[in-house]
Q: What sequence folds into this?
């Protein structure tokens, strides 16, 4: 059974999709051990608690230095013997120590088709604002492994979503979540939990 730690910062819609997928059998051989947020007021923590999952706030604001926060987060994950860290709307930069300790065991969902509209500064509504400003006809979401870069790790899966003429950033964000993010993130977790995905020479290999 794959032990998951889901890291969140806000509402937790992707967390909800993961919990639902575990409940309905779309994700097998995996369980959420803990949900951790850097934001004490994140609604995602309430979602987890209502679902009977341990929910913890570990905030940089509660530590004198960023290094102290990084160490606390590291110790929490290691002590729980987490198999896979899932970044589901997590806005905290994952420290190198955790990336190294959990190599090819951290995945992230990004609301665009990487390499478009990604990297430093591209998160939340900003991604969709930039896509609409550029006038692209197709956007979507990408689930990928996390490495030391920003949105640069090996791509696991992508799903395209068409942009409509009257889209606003908020409308596009919702459609991409519903049609792409909530589909490919649970699928990626299920594939990893059941040994259908490995990383070879920096590329994802599906069995």
A:
């Amino acid at each position: 059974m794959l032990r998951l730690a889901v890291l969140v910062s806000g509402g937790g819609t992707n967390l909800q999709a993961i919990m639902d997928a575990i409940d309905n059998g779309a994700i097998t051989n995996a369980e959420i051990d803990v949900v951790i947020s850097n934001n004490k007021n994140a609604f995602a923590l309430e979602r987890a608690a209502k679902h009977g999952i341990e929910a913890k706030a570990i905030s940089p604001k509660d530590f004198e230095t960023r290094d102290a926060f990084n160490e606390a987060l590291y110790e929490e994950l290691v002590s729980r013997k987490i198999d896979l860290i899932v970044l589901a709307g997590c806005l905290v930069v994952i420290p190198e120590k955790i990336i190294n300790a959990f190599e090819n065991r951290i995945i992230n969902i990004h609301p665009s088709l990487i390499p478009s509209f990604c990297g430093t500064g591209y998160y939340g509504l900003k991604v969709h604002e930039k896509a609409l400003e550029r006038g692209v006809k197709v956007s979507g979401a990408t689930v990928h492994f996390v490495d030391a870069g920003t949105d640069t790790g090996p791509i696991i899966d992508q799903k395209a979503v068409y942009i409509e003429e009257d889209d606003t950033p908020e409308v596009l964000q919702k459609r991409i979540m519903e049609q792409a993010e909530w589909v490919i993130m649970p699928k990626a977790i299920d594939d990893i939990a059941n040994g259908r995905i490995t990383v070879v020479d920096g590329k994802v290999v599906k069995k």
